[in-house]
Amino acid sequence: MKEDKLVTVATFSYAPEMGLVRSKLESEGIECFVKDELASQTYIYNAIGGIKLQVRESDAERAAKIVNEMGVFQEPATKESRLNAFDRISRRVPLLGSLNLAVRFFAFLILIAVVLVLIYILAVL
Questions:
Q1: What residue spans of the chain are helical by DSSP H?
Q2: pLDDT (0 to 100) of residue 87
Q3: What whole-number distance in Å separates Cα of residue 6 and Cα of residue 48?
Q4: Quick check: 73 and 67 in contact, CB under 8 A?
Q5: CA–CA separation, 94 and 98 (whole Å)
Q6: Phi-psi region of 71 (alpha: psi -120 to 50; beta: other; left: phi over 0)
Q7: pTM value?
Q8: Which of 1, 71, 81, 124 is 20 to 30 A from 42 in CA distance terms?
């Protein structure tokens, strides 16, 4: 059986809001997936676009209708955030691709710092 692509039907700033909508969708027989839920407990969750409630592509239209009827629907941003772009690109880096987004982000920050220190040292010599 071919797996359906996941589609974001709503984004939320707070986990309790998402939980209510998720419960409603699951009670209607729609399997839900949550992306970036744990990121809401950190300082970067707004940078990644909040908590995303996703459903299978085959259920997306029905799920969007239910969410709209609930009155809490926030359409996902059509423009990809910079952190989402970083996530997509950094997954391709060998050894880092399988790591958590936050770990990859900090690994790149450390890499940049090391390169800057090396440039400084070479410039002073």
A1: 15-27, 60-70, 82-90, 101-124
A2: 84
A3: 17
A4: yes
A5: 8
A6: left
A7: 0.52
A8: 71
- Non-local (6+) Cβ contacts of 52 within 8 A are 8, 10, 11, 34, 35, 36, 76
96-123 pLDDT, tens digit each: 778 888 888 898 899 999 999 999 999 9
The pLDDT tens digits of the residues spanning 17-63 come to 888 899 999 999 999 999 887 766 666 656 677 788 899 999 989 99
User: With the CA atoms of 34, 35, 37 and 38 taken in that order, what torsion angle do they form, in degrees rounded to the nearest 10?
Assistant: 130
Identify the bridge partners of residue 52 per DSSP, sorted by sequence position: 11, 35
